[in-house]
Amino acid sequence: MSERAEILGVQVDIVTMAQAIERVENLIRAKKNSLVATANAEMIMRATKDEELKKILNAADLVVPDGAGTVWAANHLGYEMPERVAGFDLVQELMRISPAKKFKIFLFGSAPGVADKAKAKAEELYPGIKIVGTRNGFFSPEDEPEIIAQIKKSRPHILLAALGVPKQEKWLAAHKDELKIPVSIGVGGTFDVMAGVMKRAPLWMQKAKLEWLFRGLMQPSRAGRLLALPKFVLKVHASKK
Ligand code: UDP
After folding, report:
1. For the chain, which ranges sit under pLDDT 50?
2. Position in ligand 1 atom list of the atom nearest CA 197
3. CB-based burial of residue 146 (10 Å sphere; 0-12 exposed, 13-18 middle, 19+ buried)?
4. Is the CB of 163 inside a 6 Å radius of any atom of ligand 1?
5. Is 192 in the pocket of ligand 1 (CB under 6 A)?
6. Which listed site, 135, 145, 164, 188, has its alpha carbon 20 to 30 Å from 194?
7. CA of 189 to the centre of ligand 1 (A)
8. Which is nearest to 197 in space by CA: 136, 132, 123?
């Protein structure tokens, strides 16, 4: 177990990308229906108002520091957070090592067709990868038994769920014992980016720690969510003892 940084009541693991990957590999071997979350500033802000989400995050087996905001907050609060472990990058790294490690992956979520496109992209980028199933993320409660049966039948080691925050975290927490998948991860917009439906910020913006700004500008519907970051900064600062 690594040390955790407490940010606004949410425990975030102090890990590098390499350490996060090692932790996920260990969780896969342990086969304990583990949950992995990728905590960006927006998710942590949401957890301050959503007790259920906060509980899920604090009970998760691994919570990686997703985004410049989370890394800044941890460091501001006196922890030494080495680097950002973005959910998208974590997924790419897991996919990259999967053929050699023989990890099978299921892609659950996003609009119809998107997970299939992400699968095709993964097969192009990571030859030998076994994406054992896909399912879109728009369903009604009556569809859930069939979705759960489909996922279980394909026996993945890793279940990637892209239903948006906090739906994906809540869905995975509610069904993990029934699913019995070694590791489940909420991955937000990852399939959209892989499928080319949504663009990721250019590298210079990522390096300038401006990915949040790019996201807000590209999706006007999210523009209001941009305010979450300055609010987060103020709240973290105020929480500093
Ligand atoms: N999504 C889904 N089912 C839903 C709502 C959203 O599959 O009921 C998908 C959506 O298509 C997108 C992903 O969830 O691919 C993440 O959405 P968003 O970018 O809003 O997520 P966040 O940034 O909150 O993780």
Report:
1. none
2. 15
3. exposed
4. yes
5. yes
6. 145
7. 6
8. 136
Rg of the chain, C-alpha, whole Å:
17
Ligand 1: does its nearest atom lie under 6 Å from the Cβ of 169? no
Residue type, 233: V
User: Residue 117: what pLDDT?
Assistant: 98
- 192-227 pLDDT, tens digit per residue, is 999 998 888 899 998 888 888 888 888 877 777 778
Say yes or no: CB of residue 41 within 6 Å of ligand 1.
Answer: no
Atom nearest to 187 CA in ligand 1: 25
Q: What is the pLDDT of residue 100?
A: 98
Q: Which atom of ligand 1 is nearest to the CA of 192?
A: 15
